[in-house]
Amino acid sequence: MNDFVIVNILGDIWKVLMDSSTFFLLGFALAGFAKILLPETLIRSSIGKSNFWSVLKSTLIGLPLPLCSCSVLPTAMAMRRSGASRGATMSFLISTPETGVDSITISYGLLDPLLTVFRPIAAMITALITGVVENLFGDDKEESVPLDEGRAEGEKHSHDAIANDCCNIENNLKVSSTALAAFRYAFVELFDDIAGWMLVGIIAAGLVNATLPAGFMGYYFGDGVWSLLVMLILGIPVYICATSSTPFAAALMLNGLSPGAALVFLLAGPGTNISSVIVIRKFMGMRSTIIYLLSLSISIICLGATLNWIYQYWGIEPTAVIGEIASLLPQPIEITSSLVFLFLCTKSLLRKFNLQSVIKQA
Question: What is the per-residue pLDDT for 219?
Answer without folding.
Answer: 58
